Amino acid sequence: MKHYDVICIGTGPAGQKGAIQAAKLGRTVAVIEKNPVVGGAQVNTGTIPSKALREAVITLTGADKRNLLGASYRAKKDVTVADLVGFSQQIIRHEWELIGSQFERNHIDLIWGHARFVGPHEIEVDGKEGPERYTADSFLISVGTRPARPDHIPFNEHTIITSDELVQLDKIPRTMIVVGGGVIGSEYACIMATLGVRVTLVEGRHQVLGFLDQEIAGAFQFFMRQKGITLRLGEKVESIAEIETDEPEGGMGRGSRSNKAVEARLESGKKLRADVLLYSVGRQGVCGQLGLENVGIEYDDRERLKVNDHYQTNVPHVYAAGDVIGFPALASTSMEQGRRAICHALGVCDVRNYNTELFPYGIYAVPEISMVGKTEEQLTDEGIPYESGIAHYREIARAKLLGDELGMMKMLIHQETHHILGVHVIGAEATELIHIGQAVMALGGTAEFFIDNVFNFPTLAECYKVAAYNGLNKLNHV
User: Fold this and answer.
1) Measuring CA to CA, which residue among 111, 141, 137 is closest to residue 3?
2) Model pTM?
3) pLDDT by residue (tens digit) across 106-143?
4) Helix H segments across 227-367?
5) What domains, with CATH codes, occur in the chain?
6) DSSP state at residue 173
7) In whole angstroms, how far apart are CA 35 and each of 2, 341, 412?
């Protein structure tokens, strides 16, 4: 029975970074992966595939160049599933190779199989050669989550699917219903609409992406409608079923016919019909398969683990990080959580605490959205006096060069101290642009920083200077 200083369960972003951190500290490390490839949902079904699909769709359709080259411009007339899959697989294979190389360079043992605790310091891995047992001083549970699949939804992996199956469709549908207006549902709705699919999005709340600043969310909903997406807000799905239909086949670029469709009945009495329905309402943990009862670790009804500020479960030598612990469930935060958990487990005390309010959020819809800090609604509820500074992309030369004249940045400035309270961006490169505001906020900077410093021209970063002038001019009544 082999012993390690640290065993990480799962090779997603938390497990990767946790394992590498332990190895850099000179410890013996093993990572266990139950799937046939490394990377977890980040590489194989979630973050990377969805973003690769987005980039492929935008590039192949030429959607990002139409403001410059005309509304009818297309880089490729007929985009096929093969085009999209080929683009995505290049990125995914690169990530597999990169992760494997990092493990090998850092002398991390990669063990394939399903892990299950059989004791406080012992696990059993059911691999191809049969079960083997390993022991460790510390464990990091980083098994992630999977899309929620309620029993009353008749999933079939072809017409009624989750986001895991979307990237594996064998043809591009003509029409699609998306149930759920969260990050995943909104991203895929925009991606498919950009591809030319007629999309209807159903969301029980009266706004998609309810955590966004309302002005940004309103602008995003306008963009969605401009893409031809039908928004059914404030609506709930009563039932979903696959039905027989005599309509023409649903896939683009095929000559055959198909008599299968999906019908969604709403509580309001409406009936929606489409070739494919994407169900994207929440995610579910997988902790029930880990034998945690043998260690005395409890999990909630969605199989998520509760941890303290050091990412320890109720059993001190067993840590957890990433989506398995719930909010904020981002690949970026998962990486840092995994690293910090291992640092604490190994007694590294010079890891600074970070301000969780400064986590940047990135939504890779079309257009991109990103935010850091407070929204206008939060500041109002908290009684914090602020002013907003706005920079419209139409004022920025770089945005014109990129073909985006509709984006905008909003900077929220404290009325008295001029500290930056929040930055919200919708438009090209929003997820890159946000980090400038994040850094200035983390270092206690004010709006004057942007006034007094020089930015390369032409760049989108110029938005910060324009927004700062706009906000300070309002405060100075000029």
Assistant:
1) 137
2) 0.90
3) 999 999 999 999 999 999 999 888 999 999 999 999 99
4) 331-345
5) 2-147+284-345 (3.50.50.60), 160-279 (3.50.50.60), 367-475 (3.30.390.30)
6) B
7) 22, 23, 44
